[in-house]
User: Which sequence fits this backbone?
């Protein structure tokens, strides 16, 4: 039975997520979006172009189809603007199914609040939702990873042997989106197998997952891409910097008061004893450290090892998704122990009120509502529309583009430079078939 307070929180979360979806109509392609779209519209056979990416740039055998088969080629900028809504729906549905598989109680509330908190703390909300190439390469793989873990949980406890088939299916799909998912999946499956060495089926899943990891990271294109970075493969540097980033990001995320209010809400919510009992493995210190710190650490270690830097936050956007989802499950598993430490009474209505407030105003949500209210996002869209119209009308000509004045924290485009040979300028000229792009 859903209480009135829970209904209000659900409505607030829906409003926030709907606002993120609405804001998608103001986003525009940038950088790699144009490069991949140019690849996708080349005269070469589409399948051959995608398969060649393994030699040219990376081994991402699923996301390469999606980025090269760009929405810019299928439906133009109008379809591009629809992609954030599709992605947000996928995140909400994926989270709902995961929580349904694991706890099957208050699923709608938990999935919506978790997703809303994720959006509020995401290190770079543009790359996480609105920039197609970055978002589609990382977030869907995270959704598929969680679904495989949720199915494995059901497989472990309910002993439904047929579940091994969708588990393998989601392993294959998820690992094809980026390098972080197979690294995290392999580590997770091995960790679960070490939890019970007698489970030969988990050992086989671990070996299979390692095979997927090897296929992705052994792609010749990885060497080509990494050759642009001179400080790669420094083991000690990657090891210690990954810990620094892990502490930094989790520390920043935990500044959000909504997380603590959500923890309190979960602690004082009722869950069947059977669910708590099944989650008892999450009371072990080593398991807690792995599920809470592991995804964030590996999401930092991967790019640090391969490039020597964490220049973009796409992998940590993914980590923030895992962190809040796993934190919610961990709190439910340990709620009785935590609850016993409370020496005072808390008013549920007051907690719900402040939770709603901080869901609305913390970090990314604050800038989202502020920039919509002040017209910054609308002005950004007007400037970009003017730019795109000029580019479309100037085929086979040199084009002089004015810099974007209304640069927002929610949406972004890569700035053009004074050098027409700069890759950011050439992305426009290649896609719109202009001769050269100059900064006006």
Assistant:
């Amino acid at each position: 039975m859903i209480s009135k307070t829970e209904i209000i929180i659900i409505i607030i979360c829906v409003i926030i997520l709907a606002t993120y979806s609405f804001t998608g109509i103001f986003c525009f392609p940038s950088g790699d979006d144009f490069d991949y779209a140019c690849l996708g519209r080349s005269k070469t056979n589409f399948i051959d172009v995608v398969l060649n990416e393994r030699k040219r740039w990376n081994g991402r055998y699923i996301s390469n189809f999606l980025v090269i088969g760009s929405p810019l080629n299928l439906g133009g900028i109008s379809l591009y603007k629809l992609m954030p809504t599709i992605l947000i729906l996928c995140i909400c549905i994926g989270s709902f199914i995961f929580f349904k598989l694991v706890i099957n109680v208050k699923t709608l509330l938990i999935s919506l609040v978790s997703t809303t908190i994720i959006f509020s703390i995401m290190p770079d909300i543009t790359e996480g939702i609105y920039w197609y190439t970055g978002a589609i390469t990382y977030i869907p793989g995270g959704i598929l990873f969680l679904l495989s873990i949720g199915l494995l949980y059901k497989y472990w406890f309910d002993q439904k042997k047929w579940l091994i088939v969708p588990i393998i299916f989601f392993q294959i799909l998820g690992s094809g989106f980026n390098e972080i998912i197979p690294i995290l999946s392999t580590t997770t499956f091995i960790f679960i197998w070490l939890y019970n060495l007698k489970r030969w089926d988990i050992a086989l899943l671990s070996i299979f997952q390692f095979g997927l990891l090897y296929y992705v990271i052994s792609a010749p294109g990885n060497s080509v891409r990494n050759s642009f970075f001179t400080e790669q493969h420094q083991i000690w540097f990657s090891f210690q910097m990954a810990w620094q980033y892990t502490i930094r990001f989790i520390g920043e995320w935990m500044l959000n008061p909504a997380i603590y209010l959500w923890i309190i809400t979960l602690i004082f919510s009722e869950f069947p004893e059977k669910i708590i009992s099944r989650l008892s493995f999450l009371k072990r210190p080593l398991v807690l450290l792995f599920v809470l710190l592991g995804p964030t650490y590996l999401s930092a270690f991967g790019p640090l090892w391969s490039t020597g830097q964490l220049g973009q936050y796409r992998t940590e956007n993914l980590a923030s998704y895992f962190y809040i989802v796993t934190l919610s499950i961990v709190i439910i598993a340990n709620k009785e122990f935590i609850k016993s430490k409370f020496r005072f009474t808390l008013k549920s209505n007051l907690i719900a009120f402040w939770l709603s407030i901080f869901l609305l105003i913390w970090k990314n949500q604050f800038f989202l509502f502020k920039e919509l209210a002040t017209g910054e996002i609308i002005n950004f869209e007007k400037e970009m529309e003017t730019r795109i119209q000029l580019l479309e009308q100037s085929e086979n000509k040199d084009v002089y583009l004015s810099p974007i004045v209304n640069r927002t924290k929610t949406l972004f485009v890569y700035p053009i430079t004074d050098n027409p040979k700069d890759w950011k300028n050439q992305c426009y000229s290649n896609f719109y078939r202009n001769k050269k792009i100059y900064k006006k």
Remarks:
- Strands lie at 399-401, 437-439.
- The chain is about 70% helix and 0% strand.
